[in-house]
Design brief:
The chain has 2 domains: 3-68 and 314-403, no CATH class; 70-277, Rossmann fold. The protein has 16 helices and 9 strands. The chain has helices spanning 3-8, 59-69, 73-87, 104-115, 133-144, 156-170, 175-192, 239-245, 261-267, 274-277, 282-293, 317-328, 332-342, 348-358, 367-374, 378-387, and strands spanning 96-99, 121-126, 149-152, 196-199, 233-234, 237-238, 270-273, 394-397, 400-403. The strands form 4 sheets. Strands 1-2-3 form a 3-stranded parallel sheet. Strands 4-7 form a two-stranded parallel sheet. The protein has a two-stranded antiparallel sheet with strand order 5-6. The longest helix is centred in the middle third of the chain and has 18 residues, at 175-192. InterPro entries: N-acetyl_sugar_amidoTrfase.
Length: 409
Amino acid sequence: MSEKSKLEKVEVKYGLPSEVKFCTKCTISNQRPSSVVEFKNRPNDIKPTIEFDDDGVCSACRFAEIKESKIDWKIREQELIELCAKHRSKDGSYDCIVPGSGGKDSVFASHILKYKYRMNPLTVTWAPHKYTDIGWRNMQSWIHAGFDNILVSPNGTVHRILTRLAFENLVHPFQPFIIGQRMIAPRFSAMYNIPLIFYGENQAEYGNNIKENDRPTMDPVFYSEKPDLSKLYLGGVSAQQLIDDYGVDKRDLNPYLPVDGERLQKNGTEVHYLSYYIKWDPQECYYYAAENVGFQANTERTEGSYSKYSSIDDRIDPLHYYTTFIKFGIGRATYDSAQEIRCGKITRDEGVALVHKFDHEFPSKYIKEILEYMEITEERFWEIIDNARSPHLWIEENGVWKLRHQVAY
């Protein structure tokens, strides 16, 4: 029996492809999960979306080629100039919203909008679960570089419950943060009557449907639905179940819920991706933020990767990427190296070596306090982790878990 035939008989979780393929240009695999509408996620709702062509090249790498050769960035910038002119305030009021944590991307976006394109952004932040020291310092540097900011810290009791449930049911402890982060800007757009919102890059840059890059705006379905509570899921359970079984007050769920679509439509709310107008390069965003705002990289590399400047503000971040490694065989070094290969910062061979060295690394630095935060024992933690391993990706040999497939040179 062929290896492919054997694997077809192995259980495949999460709706993933049974045959594992790696891009021939970067380090990503076809197991990459989509960035779907997070508040709909139930345990089996995760689907891969990255596509590979006949040459074995992923859609993210193909779009990187399009960015270099087929997009006229001068024309795109002129579209941005005209958009800003349409919304720019004449009385000193806020004329756009930039959500972010004070990381390199939100710092870059807000600074270039204010100081190059003469906008007056209101920055809004959905607080991390637990700020890192460097994350908090960068947040303060951002504000003191000349920006008004509203920091929203969600109800601690509810956020802990949702984070624990998201880990237990979805092995996705970052889900409550992602939901809040997505909803905060549209919510403030409606509250303050500021129609224009700027996010950084579209996730299509990294493998979501490549056609999404043809439009500058986010589909309103991502933030403005008004579903039945029994059909809206948070942490893998329905919102109604949270109220009935977990003692969560309906009022306390408000920050996680989609914004009233009719209200947003009346307000004229539009969520734009700055990456549509400006060629997006995360490392160049870091250099810009460091030079103009005093953004600092960490003094040590992030666990699970070699990077020191990306996603360094939340202590739960390393665990989040470790769970993607467990569920999809894709860890933080894979994400970081794939992106840097596409941007021409490292070669594929360098990326493969970095993945082999760091992808599997366990995030030990903050794990004790994160487990205490979620009120989960170490024994329960490993039970959840090992149950999350899809048999088509993992095999246990002599009590040691090993990936069946790894990216090769």
